[in-house]
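FORM 12-B: Structure-to-Sequence Request
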């Protein structure tokens, strides 16, 4: 626990629930106003494990004490498999566990947000200054990328693996444009991935935003090891929060409450508080106070096929970055056509396979990962009971639509097309997976057994102007006056690539609106 006044019952102007990617940014931005007392409540502790800052160690962090380590329901679309979902439970949240890839998304992704909200603040053009404010990018100042923002973006050059270089050459020979990162608005092409790494070390959102100076602000209190169990309502307001921590249960009062607990725990907290779908709350034994059928629904996630595996002709040197060094975004029918990406092929500098397959020894093989950018399958998250210990029922409904399965087959074809090109001949001894697949059913079967999460759950408190949407374009929960949701859960649809940059843009957009509107 940090912060001088955290021992006693705090009374704040603003309470932020969850000190993850969105919550840490918001804590810094909302406490810029000295008269505004901000309390950040985080279930986990401060980040301390030195491995967090070692980029290559990121897959090994999963399952440690600061990972929520969720399990999905068995997935019919993936051969009945249960998928492990990592989420950070510490200050910095999932930015302490993630793979550090930084991709804003494609302009069309955000047009869909404008269409659903009727609000142009969510357009690519309007978000440009928001992304720029976040970033410290080597190309910053060119009118597209940001300069001097809190979050460093690294464009790898010399450290890129020779295998990833050959992969990029193969994509370019296929006709894909060579890009300088994925963040210019043009995503179709090949490039090393842009990463949140500085001087060889991961930069978490806590490193970037909760600096010593920010933590020293008198009006900011950070309460760790404390989990918000439920919100207590009075009329159209949240009156107080019930917080369970080391000192037992305390009631916390605030004028405004901002949920930043992430795509799983924000809807779960609402449901435990009696706000959500009537049938789900009934089944969980929670009295329904406000029936909002869409809370917990619209769950989306990216999958990656793991994968199109090759035995290497010569030893593959370990990645000097974070194993997934380059992603090629493409159209599905005509791989090199321009526009919004539909599929992706990534170069894994390691033999990466799902638990259904045996991974060869490190250094002897490599994987081309493959996936689709805009799945149409929609799942849900539900609570199973009223208590913090009651399991979340997570059903992403993976690969439930024919369109998703068809695009996944095309993504596998794209991986094999790149994987068999001459530019990779120096690395390729032979293809190990999937082997011969001579019909769609066999391809579907391989895909179902090979896919793993790309770790991008979102959409469970979606924003929109329709009556079913959970939050409005200002991210206010529609049924209440003083409750906001600001995290991955409000995304109406996935962006084409990894979503962290979009989550930060959501938080920065809210911070600007908050300053202009609520603080004035
Ligand atoms: C393994 C992994 C790899 C990933 N790789 C990438 C990548 O390379 N690039 C990319 O763009 N994205 C990546 N992502 C996704 C990205 O990290 C997340 O989408 C993003 O961090 C989500 O931010 P958030 O603020 O919504 O939630 P989080 O960052 O998860 O924050 C939620 C916080 O709320 C806290 N909390 C939850 N419930 C409560 C409660 N009741 N009371 C108090 N606190 C609570 C949690 O402990 C957590 O700290 C990855 C994610 C993971 C897990």
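FORM 12-B RESPONSE
SEQUENCE OUT:
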């Amino acid at each position: 626990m940090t912060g001088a006044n955290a021992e006693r019952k705090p009374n704040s102007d603003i309470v932020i629930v969850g000190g993850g990617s969105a919550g840490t940014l918001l804590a810094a931005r909302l406490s810029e106003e000295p008269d505004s007392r901000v309390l950040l409540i985080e279930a986990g502790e401060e980040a301390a494990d030195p491995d967090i800052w070692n980029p290559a160690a990121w897959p090994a962090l999963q399952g440690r004490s600061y990972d929520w380590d969720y399990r999905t329901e068995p997935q019919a679309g993936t051969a009945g498999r249960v998928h492990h979902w990592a989420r950070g439970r510490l200050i910095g949240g999932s930015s302490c566990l993630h793979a550090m890839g930084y991709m804003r998304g494609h302009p069309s992704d955000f047009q869909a947000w404008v269409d659903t909200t009727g609000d142009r603040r969510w357009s690519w053009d309007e978000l440009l200054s928001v992304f720029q404010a976040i970033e410290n990018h080597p190309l910053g100042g060119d009118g597209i990328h940001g300069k001097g923002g809190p979050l460093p973006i690294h464009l790898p050059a010399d450290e890129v693996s020779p295998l990833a270089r050959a992969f990029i050459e193969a994509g370019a020979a296929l006709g894909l444009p060579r890009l300088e990162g994925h963040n210019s608005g043009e995503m179709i092409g090949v490039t090393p991935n842009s990463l949140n790494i500085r001087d060889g070390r991961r930069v978490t959102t806590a490193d970037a935003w909760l600096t010593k100076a920010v933590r020293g602000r008198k009006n900011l209190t950070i309460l760790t090891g404390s989990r918000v169990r439920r919100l207590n309502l009075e009329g159209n307001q949240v009156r107080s929060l019930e917080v369970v921590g080391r000192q037992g249960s305390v009631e916390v009062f605030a004028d405004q409450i901002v949920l930043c607990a992430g795509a799983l725990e924000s809807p779960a907290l609402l449901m435990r508080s009696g706000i959500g779908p009537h049938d789900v709350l009934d089944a969980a034994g929670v009295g329904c106070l406000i029936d909002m059928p869409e809370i917990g629904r619209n769950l989306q996630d990216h999958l990656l096929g793991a994968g199109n595996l090759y035995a290497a002709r010569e030893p593959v040197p370990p990645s000097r970055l974070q194993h997934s060094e380059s992603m090629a975004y493409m159209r599905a029918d005509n791989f090199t056509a321009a526009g919004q990406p539909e599929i992706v092929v990534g170069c894994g500098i390691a033999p990466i396979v799902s638990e259904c397959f045996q991974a060869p020894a490190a250094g002897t093989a490599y994987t081309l990962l493959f996936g689709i950018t805009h799945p149409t399958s929609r799942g849900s998250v539900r609570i199973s009971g009223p208590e913090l210990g009651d399991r979340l029922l997570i059903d992403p409904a993976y690969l439930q639509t024919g369109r998703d399965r068809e695009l996944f087959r095309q993504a596998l074809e794209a991986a094999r097309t790149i994987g068999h090109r001459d530019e990779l001949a120096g690395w390729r001894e032979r293809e190990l997976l999937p082997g011969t697949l001579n019909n769609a059913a066999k391809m579907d079967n391989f895909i179902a057994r090979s896919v793993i999460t790309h770790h991008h759950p979102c959409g469970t408190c979606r924003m929109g102007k329709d009556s079913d949407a959970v939050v409005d374009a200002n991210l206010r929960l529609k049924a209440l006056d003083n409750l906001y949701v600001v995290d991955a859960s409000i995304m109406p649809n996935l962006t084409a690539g990894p979503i962290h940059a979009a989550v930060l843009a959501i938080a920065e957009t809210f911070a600007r609106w908050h300053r202009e509107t609520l603080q004035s």
